[in-house]
Design a protein that fits this description.
With about 130 residues, this protein is mainly alpha-helical. The protein folds into two domains: about 10-70, Arc Repressor Mutant, subunit A (Orthogonal Bundle); about 90-129. Helices cover about 60% and strands about 10% of the residues. It is built from six helices and three strands, in the order H-E-H-H-E-E-H-H-H. Strands 1-3-2 form a three-stranded antiparallel sheet. Strand 2 (about 55-60) and strand 3 (about 65-70) form a beta hairpin. The longest helix is centred in the C-terminal third of the chain and has 17 residues, at about 110-125.
Amino acid sequence: MLKTTMTHLSRRERQIMDLLFQRGRATAAEVQRGLPDPPSYSAVRAMLRILEEKGHVRHEQEGPRYVYVARVDRDKARHSALRHLVQTFFDGSAEQAVAALIDDGAGRLTDEELARMGRMIAKARKEGA
């Protein structure tokens, strides 16, 4: 079965996955160019190979080049990363995470965003989530 958790990725592996999610697909050279303080081309290829072995990435051959694509659904990856973040920095408390987001976004959240969040909370309360 395909491993979908993104919690066991190194910083560089996460950067590569972020890049692939943003672009949809990329060659090793494109990945290298998109990374901050990029490692060597051969190091990027090695990391892509590792990500492929872990089941996060697959490649397609286009002529002489490999083009890499994320195998992990972006929404599943997002949920996995969020669970990891809440667990790591907020002791598993969704309330603390939401409070931090609201505090950090104070003055930047629109009335519509706040109303939408209120409806989500009401829906979760109604559904017993």
